[in-house]
């Protein structure tokens, strides 16, 4: 298949592009390097150094003999987006290219407006490009489990059958997200469902859990193929952040009482889920939703697992929660769609956690201490 990966310079887009290329697909890679610009703005860097887009692409050609076709530009530019889709003529488009940090979207008004404009307008331009170039192109869009929030009923895969006053209908699952970033994904989901229902496009919305890990079979083949490893309180995902804190001898910072439960998955499962979704497309007109997670953990439990895996003393510290989120809540997620297509998950193990310790040790001099602690607060609305 011909697959265009949007956001291919990012944490997940890059290893996904390599995984698809290794599986024999013709892969195009698109990015506007916004993620590298947020690093400059926030004064932080990936813990593991990453190469330029050109060097990565060239390294993959040397290692695998396979070519990735690059497109550099911004999805909020409609001409660029349509030209890229027309130029590559994909069978499937994997869309990772959004501002993805909840804390970044909550910094102030300017960051909330940027996040929603970037994400919602970029996706809308993409829907128009697909409709114009070829409505048969399968859109595989990254959503997030955070779109659902923590409802007191089971979380179904995108849709809910309800009976109201004796009548029954199938509706999009009601969402109660926890940040302006998560809201941007909810808005995207509605726009994509609309385009499927009205224009007959085909799409898979992958409501992904929190990803951990840093290595895949392909990124391991050469240090120049490494993907990002973020540790800061804005972009670092929770398990990766705990591992870094353990190695540096800092307390693992759990927000609130740590009873919040989140769906999670390993990076090797992310790339495999995307391959499965691309190779098993949605039907024309179908808006298909999968909950892309393999296990749920309470944050407190996750911190204890990292502390136990680390061969030294580790303290766990509870910080006042900078976010506004429920503790001690019900959390039961249906996630049978991807296993039904053949996913065999890598469950969280001490071996995986232990494999991250040497990566952190080798790069520990790059850590900026100040970046580990949360500075963005959910309460109060700041003008930017
Ligand atoms: P990332 O920030 O590392 O990568 C996103 C990439 O998209 C970046 O390289 C960025 O430069 C690019 N981009 C952003 N806006 C763009 C635009 N307008 N035009 C072109 N390129 C643009 O993020 P990630 O962690 O790889 O996440 C990828 C996707 O997966 C996101 O949509 C995110 O919401 C979703 N997701 C991630 C996680 C996680 O734990 N990392 C969890 C759930 C969902």
UniProtKB/TrEMBL annotation:
Gene3D superfamilies: NAD(P)-binding Rossmann-like Domain, UDP-galactose 4-epimerase, domain 1. Transmembrane segments: none annotated. Residues 3-291 form the NAD-dependent epimerase/dehydratase domain. It comes from the Bacteria. Belongs to the NAD(P)-dependent epimerase/dehydratase family. This is NAD-dependent epimerase/dehydratase family protein.
């Amino acid at each position: 298949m011909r697959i265009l990966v949007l956001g291919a310079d990012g944490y997940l887009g890059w290893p996904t592009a390599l995984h698809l290329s290794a599986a024999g697909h013709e892969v195009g890679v698109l990015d506007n390097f916004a993620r590298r610009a947020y690093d400059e703005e926030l004064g932080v860097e990936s813990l593991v150094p990453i190469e330029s887009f050109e060097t990565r692409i060239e390294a993959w050609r040397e290692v695998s003999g396979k070519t990735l076709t690059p497109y550099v530009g911004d999805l909020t530019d409609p001409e660029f987006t349509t030209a890229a889709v027309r130029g590559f003529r994909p069978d499937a488009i994997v869309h990772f290219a959004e501002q993805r940090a909840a804390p970044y979207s909550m910094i102030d008004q300017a960051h909330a407006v940027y996040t929603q404009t970037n994400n919602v307008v970029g996706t809308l331009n993409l829907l128009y490009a697909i409709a114009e170039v070829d409505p048969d192109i399968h859109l595989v869009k990254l959503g997030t489990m955070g779109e659902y929030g923590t409802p007191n009923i089971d979380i179904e895969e995108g849709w809910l059958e309800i009976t109201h006053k004796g009548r029954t209908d199938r509706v999009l699952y009601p969402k109660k997200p926890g940040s302006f970033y998560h809201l941007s994904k909810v808005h995207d989901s509605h726009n994509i469902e609309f385009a499927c229902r009205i224009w007959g496009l085909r799409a898979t919305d992958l409501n992904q859990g929190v990803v951990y890990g840093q290595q895949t079979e392909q990124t391991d083949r050469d240090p120049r193929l490494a993907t990002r490893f973020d540790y800061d309180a804005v972009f670092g995902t929770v398990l990766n952040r705990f591992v870094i804190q353990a190695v540096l001898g800092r307390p693992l910072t759990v927000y609130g009482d740590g009873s919040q439960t989140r769906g999670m998955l390993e990076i090797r499962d992310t790339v495999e889920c995307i391959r499965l979704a691309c190779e098993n497309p949605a039907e024309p007109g179908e808006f298909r939703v999968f909950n892309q997670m393999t296990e749920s953990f309470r944050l407190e439990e996750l911190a204890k697992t990292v502390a136990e895996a680390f061969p030294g003393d580790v303290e766990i510290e509870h910080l006042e929660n900078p976010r506004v989120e429920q503790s001690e809540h019900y959390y039961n997620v249906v996630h049978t769609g991807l296993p039904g297509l053949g996913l065999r998950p890598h469950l969280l193990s001490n071996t995986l956690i232990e494999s991250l310790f040497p990566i952190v040790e080798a790069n520990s001099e790059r850590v900026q201490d100040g970046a580990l602690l949360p500075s963005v607060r959910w309460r109060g609305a700041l003008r930017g």
